[in-house]
Design a protein that fits this description.
The protein is α+β, with helices and mostly antiparallel strands. It has 8 helices and 11 strands.
Length: about 325
């Protein structure tokens, strides 16, 4: 019989999204982000509460309110400081990670190690949203219809202050936004631009922004992304996004008559070996035990510190993977 909160034991060659998508509670292990943002898992995750003074969590049915404690605390801090200093009434928090991280049943390729969080660009209303509203309410696009440019009837200086505050935190590695939003910031921001280079243009992200933090200090088995290029990023690398190239459909190859092979799902065996221990680990007695503000997190970590199932060798540093080529001359994001 599986431990409380654990996903059912599974063969290593089963699609990882099915295994991790089945876990309804986190692994009661010391907090650890394992692997890379798009290929890994999460031990000792905690949830952000569904409601707080300056945030509300959205799409609750997805059960993606979980993250590394460092990230959850940062989201709470951003919500509080943006409300107090930036004129932003509160965050609508989107997807963070599944309880044990890993590939998701639908949606994101990243968000696997509990260090990524999506925040809507729609300000929090001055009332508590109903369960139905959290499932069905749509986020607001910042763009003029059928263009790459921000709609000034929707965009406000508070949006800019929120994004620049998020980028200012030292533990933040990147903030992903639509190229049009990055251009708006480049054209209009008059404050310090020291953190502007962390705000990276990318496809989508016109109705929410994506926070990515670095691996926690001293963490083994967690791999951060290469730091973004120096500078504010308001140069030719941004101008590229306003050419035809990023949006042109892929050119068919000469011999494009053969049926394309089905994309292979990430298997459990493709993930770091420690992820199998994360899946097999027991869960907490309840969600309340592992929600931001609860005390038992440290107790759970101490209780498991000497457990043979989580011995240090299970979390040995990962070998550096081979470089994945990017289309040229696409700039780094």
């Amino acid at each position: 019989m599986a431990a409380a909160g654990a996903a059912q034991p599974t063969a290593a060659d089963q699609p990882a999204k099915q295994v991790f998508g089945a876990a309804d509670l986190p692994a009661a292990l010391p907090a650890r982000a394992i692997g890379f943002y798009s290929k890994g898992c999460l031990a000792g995750g905690i949830a952000i509460p569904t409601d707080g003074p300056t945030w509300q969590a959205m799409r609750l049915s997805r059960n993606r309110r979980w993250g590394h404690p460092d990230l959850i605390r940062l989201v709470e801090k951003l919500s509080r400081e943006a409300a107090a200093q930036d004129g932003w009434p509160g965050l609508l928090v989107g997807d963070i990670a599944q309880p044990r991280g890993g590939p998701m049943l639908s949606g994101h390729a990243s968000h696997q190690v509990g260090l990524d969080a999506d925040v809507w660009l729609t300000p929090m209303p001055d009332r508590k949203l109903s369960a139905a509203e959290r499932e069905n309410l749509s986020a607001t696009s910042m763009l003029k219809k059928n263009t790459l440019y921000v709609d000034d009837r929707i965009w406000t200086p508070a949006h800019a202050r929120l994004l620049m505050r998020a980028a200012s935190y030292p533990e933040v590695e990147r903030i992903f936004v639509h190229p049009g939003i990055k251009k708006k910031l480049c054209d209009s921001w008059t404050g310090s631009r020291a953190a502007m280079g962390k705000i990276r243009p990318y496809y989508g992200h016109h109705y929410h922004f994506h926070i990515r933090i670095k691996c926690p200090p001293g963490a083994s088995g967690c791999r951060s992304q290469t730091p973004p290029p120096a500078g504010a990023g308001c140069d030719s690398s941004l101008a590229w996004w306003f050419t035809d190239e990023p949006w042109a459909p892929a050119k068919p190859k000469k011999d494009d008559t053969k049926p394309k092979p089905k994309k292979r799902d990430i298997q459990l065996s493709d993930l770091p070996s420690a992820c199998r221990m994360v899946i097999a680990a027991p869960g907490p007695a309840s969600e309340a035990e592992v929600t931001l503000g609860a005390d038992p997190i440290a107790r759970i970590a101490r209780a498991n510190a000497n457990n043979a199932a989580i011995r240090a060798s299970a979390f040995a540093p990962l070998p550096l993977p081979g470089r994945i080529p990017l289309p040229v001359p696409r700039p780094a994001n």
